[in-house]
Amino acid sequence: MRSILLAALTLLWLPAPLLAQGPPAGILAAGNKQKLPPITLAAGQPLAAQPWALTSGTYYEVEIEADGSQELGLEGAAFFRAIWIDEIVIEGLEIRPLALDSVEFDEAGTMEIGFLAIRPGRYVLQVPGTTGPDQQLQITIN
Questions:
Q1: In the CATH scheme, what architecture does the domain 25-141 have?
Q2: What is the pLDDT of residue 10?
Q3: Backbone angles phi, psi at 96, to 5 degrees
Q4: Which range has the worst mean pLDDT, 26-40, 84-98, 101-115?
């Protein structure tokens, strides 16, 4: 009888510390998510105010905004292969791609990309066919 009572008390006591810790953590947990400054696609304007310094294992969200002043795109195959893309959202449509090489805007619009940084290294996102520093975004994944 004593052992049954002791077992029942133990079962009542054990969940309390586990519940006090909150929801389980993980790579997609809200605490591991960061919002990046938007990338702007506009004729004659810089893509971003400053380079990105990302941390491997952290989930990021970024908006890519095109003003429609010119048909513009972004290429960066090496960067897109160094991340895991969770989703791309365009006007409420969620896309879950296996891979991505580049994106292009034919008119004004916004695209949001949610991704997990994976492979450390230095990468570049750039407007195709350009070499100017304003048309490139330098990215470092640590």
A1: Sandwich (2.60)
A2: 52
A3: -120, 85
A4: 26-40
In this structure, the number of other CB atoms found within 10 A of the CB of residue 74 comes to: 24
pLDDT at 17: 52
Q: How many Cβ atoms from other residues are within 10 Å of residue 64's Cβ?
A: 22
Residue for token digits 């972004």? 74
Q: Please compute Rg for the chain using Cα positions.
A: 22
Task: Using alpha carbons, list the distances in angstroms from residue 51 to 5, 86, 104, 105, 138.
Answer: 62, 22, 21, 22, 5
Helix (H, G, I), strand (E, B) or coil at 79: helix
What does DSSP assign to residue 135? G
Q: Which two tokens stand for residue 2?
A: 């004593």
What confidence tens digit (pLDDT) does each residue in 52-68 have?
A: 999 999 999 999 999 99
